[in-house]
Amino acid sequence: MTAIADGSYDLAIEELKKAYAILPHPNVLYNIARAYVDIGDLENAVANYRRYLEGNPVDRDDVTRIVGALEARIRKQEAQLLETQQVQGGGVAAGAGDSGGPRTSPPEPLPSDQPHEQGADRERAASLPPAAIAPAVVRAQNPREAGELKTEAVFEETVVTASKAAQNPVDAPNSTSIITEQDIRLSGITKIPELLRRLAGVDIMEVTGAHTEVSLRGFNQRLSNKVLVLVDGRSVYVDLIGATLWGLLSIGVEDVERIEVVRGPGSALYGADAFNGVINIITKQPGRGGSGFAFGYGDQSTSHGSIWASGREKETAYRLSAGYDYLPRWSREVPADRSDLHLATSDQDTSQRTLRLDATVTRQFGKDVKIGAQGGYSSGSYEILSIGGEQDHVLGPIESSDLSAFLHSKHLEARAFWNRISAVQENNAAYLGQSLLPARSVLDVVDAELRLVDEFETGRGVHHHLQVGVEYRLKSVQWTYQAADEVEHHGGLFVHDEVNLGARAAIVGDYRADYVPYLDRVVQSARGSVLLHPSMQSTVRGIVGTAFRTPTFLESYLDIPFQLPITGGALLTRAQPTPLQPEQILTAELGYLNSQSDYFTVDSAFFYNRVSNLIELGPSQAIALADVAGQSVPTGPSSTTGLYPLFVNGFENQCQVYGVYGAELGLRTFPVEGLDVYANYTLMDVQQDNSRCDASRLNDARTSAHKVNAGIQVRTTLGLGGSVDFHYVSPEDWAEQVIDVQRQRFAFQSFHLDAYTLLNARIGYRFLREQAEVSAVAFNLLDDRHREHPFGQVLDRRLMGFFGLKF
C-alpha cells in the first residue's frame, strides 16, 4: 500500500499478489484491480474486480458499476485504436477489430498463478499517439471513478476479547495470545484445547481421552472452573459443574479462524467465572472459505471427520458444518478379567463418541449494520474425571444444544443465546453390591447482553472509546442429586473506557457489578491498565485487576451419597448451612510487547496473584446421634441408592491463601518467507499461606514451576508443509482427596507427578492448486508415557493420517 501511495504500481501489484497467495483476502483483489486502473491496464483491472465480486461483497453494486464503466472504456479504446490503425495503414483486414465488445485476448494471470507481467494495454500504449491513449490517461487522472482503495489492515492481527472490540494486540489492556488459522492447520491437532498447549501461561491437563482441562497461570483441577471459554462471544461454561466440556462443542477445528487467549482477571468485563482469563474461539465468517471436507483416522480407531459449506447470496451469507469424533481412552481403567465389578458400559475402550452440527446465517444492512443467527447441536458419550469419590465418570447419552442471535452496528451491540445440556451419568465401575450412582441432569442457560458504544474527545488529543453494557442470565438446573430444582436470575452492569492520550499513551478502566442470587448480594470487580507505546508497534503495559468466581450448582446445592468400602455405607456430600463465598483474585502485572519488526515478535509479562477463598470439598465428619435427632441428616437409606449415611461433608472455602509470582517470556520469529519459529517459557512460584489452617493441610502448588514450549512451522512453494512442537513440564505435587479405608472417610493425600516432555509433529502435502491435502500427524512422538493428573490415564503415542479437500 505504501508502494501505491508512492506511485510504484508494479512493485505494489507484485507484493499484493504475494500477499494474496499466502493468505487470500478479497480486499487484496480489489486493491490489485485498483492499482491496474491507475496504470491504465483496464483489462487486468476488470479481471480482478470480477474475481473480487465472486465473494458477493457488501459493495457489490458499486463495484459492478465500476466494472461496467471500465468495460465501456475498453470498448471505446479499441474503437479509437481501430480508427487510428485505419488512418495510419489505410485500413485493416476484415475482422481485425470489433468495436462491439471488449477484447477477447486473455488478461494477465490472476494472483498466485505466476509473477506479474506488463499488461497488454500498457505495451500497446507505448507505440500509439497520445490521442489513442487519452482514455487511459483520463482514468489515471480520475482514480476515484474506480473507487477508493481499501486501506483496512486486513493481515494485521486483531483481538476482540480483551475489550470486546477489535483492536491491535499492542492496544489490548491485558496480556493476549492468538492461535492463528495457520497454527491450527499446520499442527494437525483436532482437539481444540490441545491447540492451546503451545502458549505461555497455559496449563493443559489430559486426564481421559475425551477430557482435557485448561487453566491459565495455574490452579488447574479435575473440573477446571477458573477460565471462561467463549465461542464467538457466547459462553460455553457449564454452570452445573463449573467446567468446559470441550468435546461437546458444535464446531470442529476446521470451523475455527483463530483462538484468542486473554491472561489475567476478566471479571471486570465478563463477570463471574472469568477468574484468571478468557479463551474466545472465533469461528470463520459465513460466506468465506468455500466448502470442503476433511477426514482423519489413526491408532485404536481414533477418527475425526468434518464437512462444511459456506456461501453468500447478495447481503445474506451462511456457513454450515457437521462432524464426527471418536476418541479412545488413553489407557483402560478396568481390566477385562475383573469379575468383582459391574460396569456402566461394556465398551471400556471408548472415551468420546460425538456427532456435531452447526449453522450460522448473517445479513448485512448497509455498511454498519449486521444481524445474524447461529444454532448448534452435539450428542454422544463423554468420559470425564469427576470430583471426590466419583473419578472415572461416564456421561451418555449426552446432548448439547445452543441457539444465539446478534446485532452489530456502529453504536449498538446486542446478543442473546440459549444453551442446554441434557445428560444421563454414572460411575464407570463399582464393586458388586454397590451403586453406580446413576443420575440425570438438565441445564438451561439463557443470556442477553446489550452494549452501547461511542467514541468522542474530551480535549485535544484525548480520545475515548466508551462501552456501557447490561447483562441478564437465567440458570435452571434439574439434577437427581440436588435437593430441589434450582432457578437463578443473575444481572450485571459494566463500563469500559479506553482513553488514548495522543499516540503514545492510553489508560483503560473497567468496572462491573454482578448480582449473585446464591449470595443475595452484588459482587464488584475492577481493572485498570496503563499503556505506554515506545513505538507504534510496541507497548509497556501495567495492570491491576480483581476477579471472582461464584459457587457452581455442584458446590452450592449438591446432595449426593458417595459409596464407601463398607457395604451399605455412604458419605453424604451436601450443601453447607453457611453460604460459600466467591473465590477471589487480585493481580498486578507488568508486560512488554514488541511487534515492530517484520521478522520477530517479543512478548513478556511479570505478575503477582493473590488468591483466596478457593472452594473445595471439606473434611468428612462422622454422623452423630445429635445430627439424626436434629434431622440435619437423613435418618434412613437414600431413596435412589439405598445407602445409609455414615459420614457427612460438603464444599467449603479453603483457609489457605496463595501468593503466585510468575513470568512469561515469548519470542516468535519469521526469518524467511514460509518459516516460523516460536519459543516461550513460563515460571510459576506458588507460595501457600497456611496460617489460618490446622496442621493437617498439605501444600499444593497447583501448577508446575517451569514450562517450556518451542516449535517450527514450514510452508514451501512445492506444497510441502508441516510443524514440530516441543513441550516440557517440570515435576509437581498434587493434593487430592481420597478415601481413607481404615477410617472410612475422605482425607487429603499428596501425589507426585514426574516431569514429562511431548513432541508433536505433522507433515502434509497440498496439491490440485492447494485445494487438496494429505498429511500425517504424531502426538507424543517420543512415546513419553506419563500422567498429567494423579488419577488421569497414561498418555502414549498416537498416529493419524488425514485427507482434506476444498472446493
Protein described:
A hairpin with a 4-residue loop joins strand 33 and strand 34. The chain contains eleven helices and 39 strands. The radius of gyration is 30 Å and the shape is globular. It is mainly beta and 807 residues long. It starts with a helix and ends with a strand. 14% of the residues lie in helices and 46% in strands. It has two domains: 145 residues, no CATH class; 638 residues, Maltoporin, Chain A (Beta Barrel). It has a 22-stranded antiparallel beta barrel. A five-stranded mixed β-sheet has the order 1-6-7-4-5. The protein has a four-stranded mixed β-sheet with strand order 23-24-29-28, with no helix packed on it.
- Low-confidence runs: 91-105, 111-141
Counted by DSSP, the helix tally is 11
Structural class designation: mainly beta
The number of strands is: 39
CATH-level-2 architecture of the largest domain: Beta Barrel
| Strand proportion | over 45%
